[in-house]
Each structure stands twice: as C-alpha cells, then as structure tokens.
Amino acid sequence: MATCAVVRRAAGHDLRHHGDAEVRDDGAELTDLAVNVRADTPPAWLKQVIAESLDGLAAYPDGRRAREAVAARHGLPPDRVLLTSGAAEAFVLLARALKVRHPVVVHPQFTEPEAALRDAGHEVGRVLLREEDGFRLDPAAVPEEADLVVIGNPTNPTSVLHPAASIAALARPGRVLVVDEAFMDAVPGEREALAGRTDVPGLVVLRSLTKTWGLAGLRIGYVLAAPDVISTLAGAQPLWPVSTPALVAARACVGPRALAEAGHAAHRVAADRGYLLAGLGELASFGVRAVGPAEGPFVLLRMPDAAGVRARLRERGFAVRRGDTFPGLGPGWIRLAVRDRGTSDRFLAALAATLTA
To answer: Which residues on adjacent β-strands are paired with residue 180?
Structure first.
C-alpha cells in the first residue's frame, strides 16, 4: 500500500460544517440525503418510552440503570462506561481531560474530533488516507510519537469498514486509541467492532444512539474505556450531563427488542445501499464514481463539477452533503445518505437529469 500523507498543520477546511447545514432554513422542504440519521426514526415504541419519562422530570437525572444497561449490552462492567450528551461531548471531554502531546486524526473522517482537539489548544497531526488505496488504513502511516489517535469505523464520509485487526494494530503502551463507532450498529453483525474489547491497550470506543434511532435532538451517546480513563473523563463533565429522557432512551435502545430491530435495519440498509450503488453505476459514463466497498448507511461519490451538481440537485428537491469540508477530500466529492428504494429511484432520476442537462 502507498504511504499515506501526514500533515501537521490545518488546511482550509470548515471543520464545523455538518450535514444538517444542508437542510436548515431554505432546505427544510428538500428530500434530505445530507444527514445520516435513519429516515424512519424514532419508531413509535421509542417515542412512547421517551414520552412516559416526562413524568419524572422534577427529579434530577440518575444514570446508573442506563449505565448498567449499556455495560451489559457490551459485556462490560459499569465502570467501563460513561454516558454522554451525544458523541460530540465525548470528543470534547477527550480533548480537554486527557494529557496528550501528539494527537493525530486519521482522515477523511468526521471532523468534530479534530475541531475539539484544536479548540482545546492542541496541535493536531493528520494522516490522510488516499483515494488510490480505497481510503483504507495503513497502520504504519501513523507516526510512532502519536499518543492519541482518532479513527472512525465505519468511517464517515468514506463508508469504509476497516478490519478490527488493522485498527487494533495502532495500539501502543502510552497511546490512547479512539475509535468512533457511531455507525457500527448499521453494519450487519457489527463485524469489525472493537466495542466490548478489553485486550487492546489504550482503547476508547465511542458509540452514538443518534444515527440508528433518530435521536439527534435528544443527544445521547457513550464511551467505553478502561476505568481510569472513564474516571478522568467523568471528572470533566458537569453534574447531570445527560437528561432523564435521554437516559431512558439509552436503556431502551440497548435492550433485546431494540438490538433485534437494529439488526434488521442494518440488513435493510445494506440492501438499499446495494440498490443505490447499482443505480449510480449506470451513471459511470458521466464520471460518477462511488468509493467501495461501502459498508455504512451512506456512500461517497466523486464526480465532475460536484459543487454545480449539488446546487442543481437542490433545485430538483434534493439536499446532499458537500465533501470538500473533509480533510483529504476536495470539491469533487459528494456524500449521500442511503434511503429506501423509492427515494433512491427519485434521486437517481434527478441526478441523471442534472448530468444530462
């Protein structure tokens, strides 16, 4: 594999740009292919569970039962679990509470970890995975001096699922290895997951309940790590960082019923993604190229005049995620959320019309 580029200074990427910016304000009426939250969520049963929790709002939140439920879901003791106000809070806690000197982020990936590190005063190194390598990880590309390494799996926006062994190979004594598994429950069988592993030194796994369950507005996620790391991060949290409705949702979303439903949804997403990719393949003569094999609930596309295509798709009723805000990508990239086949058919027709106009 070719050597990945290592960058020490930030280039001009908007690390605070996220997919929701595409559908705010004048984009509210568009078909949303920019945000990776599952479209048919939260389900009615989960809404009911959350609604019933509102009767307890007079009391301060007590996260013990939710913490125990998350721990049991991953076969861990509760002292290896920290509940957070979404994965975004976890990135801030890691950046502010851990004493690291040489953090490195593997890109292209979700930009919030680097933004949090920079806001905390860190100089952040970047390992840029290469398109010609399929954006796949070469563990040897990560500098030995890195004492904190951040990587997503499956990676947003590339939809690449890295082998667990390749990620575990990044572990070193004295290094914190942060794996963002926010989309892992969208992978059938959660293959290549590191959540629940206790044999990888310095491992910190982040999970989000936002994507699969449609809870972006509720803010709930969690950290899995060694007890000393959990204690350090918890010491940086404010009191009662997670609301009662979010705690109730966390318990519900890691229960047997929810896990079975999430498993079925993962297989459905995989089938819908295959359908979308087949349709995109028919547009290859126009220069449309998808990164593959895609394993997440989204796909990354390269195409000529991607910015112009994105603007014209808005005119045809579709919002897609620009790719140029991700380090390692440029203006020729677009990210698409996977939706049902009917939505994909409408999008593919709009894209074909845009490309042939």
So the answer is: 152, 206
Contact 70, 81 (CB under 8 A): yes
Those residues with Cβ within 8 angstroms of residue 152's Cβ, 6 or more apart along the chain or in another chain: 106, 109, 110, 179, 180, 181, 182, 183
pTM: 0.94
**Residue 3 DSSP code:** P
Domains of the chain: 13-40+260-356 (3.90.1150.10), 44-258 (3.40.640.10)
User: Are 84 and 93 in contact, with CB atoms under 8 Å apart?
Assistant: yes
Of 258, 226, 182, nearest in space to 77 by CA: 226
Contact 63, 251 (CB under 8 A): no
CA 125 vs CA 119, 130, 147: distances in Å? 14, 16, 11
Q: pLDDT tens across 26-58, in order?
A: 667 899 999 988 878 899 999 999 999 999 999
